[in-house]
Amino acid sequence: MEASADAGAAAAAASARTLRWAGRAGHLGGFPRAAVFAAVGAFAKAYASLLNTTTVHNADALLRLVSARPRGTPLLTISNHMSTVDDPLMWGFKGFPISDAKLGRWVLTAEDICFRNVVMSYMFRLGKCVPITRGGGIYQEHMNEALDVLINGDWLHSFPEGKIAQDDEPIRRLKWGTASLIVRAPVTPIVLPIVHSGFEKVMPENLFFGRRPPVPLWGKKIDIIIGDPIEFDMASLKQEASAVPHDSSSEKKGWPIITPDGLDEAAQRWLYQKMSDKIQSVMERLRKKLLNLKQH
């Protein structure tokens, strides 16, 4: 009973700290959210379009899906993660409606960085940020909140590498959270890959005595490439996953069985790994294509 009470108290404290109510569209008539998007949008436009040089390849693919995808169809964009300012600066390129709060993305953000106190929590909630607890697993309450975004047919952005990587290396092994959201969504989202470079120069991790600069830098070149949607035959994938032999030794997390598909933990692990490998492969091809474009 005491353990249950402690868990309940911890959940209540986390809920109070992350202020989910502030992220609702109708909060104070939507005016605080609109103000935040206008301010952040102006900041992103200034850095992406004026203070730095940004080149975007295949921008129409993103613009079309953000503003004119089928009603009720969620959009899940995924990208590499090179700095703390990737979002929102990556949406500040010319022609993108970054200041439109209704069209704006929801984004998964690190709770320990963006939700450290009430003021930060309130501002990031207004900016349509979903906190993710590091080490909390793919079935943590905040991931259920991210799933709600997709259930509502909205746009969600994820950094599936799970951490910042500023060296020019291949796409790293992806965390399974993104794949789990795709599987659990009632309507399979449109999954759009994005790869960028240059933000590691705008906000380097180790510039001043091993610390980030106080403000983003300028005079840098930013390159962004938007790929084609990644197709997943979910019916076939789930059928293959259901045939994976049950292995009780793999039940390390005590994951819930996914209904109505009835996928146990072993099946989920196989499925999430299979999908993550495909996403990683697509993103790596996109990274190499961007490198080639930059050299010509």
UniProtKB/TrEMBL annotation:
<keyword id="KW-0012">Acyltransferase</keyword>
<dbReference type="Pfam" id="PF01553">
    <property type="entry name" value="Acyltransferase"/>
</dbReference>
<dbReference type="InterPro" id="IPR000872">
    <property type="entry name" value="Tafazzin"/>
</dbReference>
<keyword id="KW-0808">Transferase</keyword>
<dbReference type="GO" id="GO:0006629">
    <property type="term" value="P:lipid metabolic process"/>
</dbReference>
<feature type="domain" description="Phospholipid/glycerol acyltransferase">
    <location>
        <begin position="75"/>
        <end position="199"/>
    </location>
</feature>
<comment type="similarity">
    <text>Belongs to the taffazin family.</text>
</comment>
<dbReference type="GO" id="GO:0016746">
    <property type="term" value="F:acyltransferase activity"/>
</dbReference>
<protein>
    <recommendedName>
        <fullName>Tafazzin family protein</fullName>
    </recommendedName>
</protein>
<keyword id="KW-0472">Membrane</keyword>
<keyword id="KW-0443">Lipid metabolism</keyword>
<dbReference type="GO" id="GO:0016020">
    <property type="term" value="C:membrane"/>
</dbReference>
<dbReference type="InterPro" id="IPR002123">
    <property type="entry name" value="Plipid/glycerol_acylTrfase"/>
</dbReference>
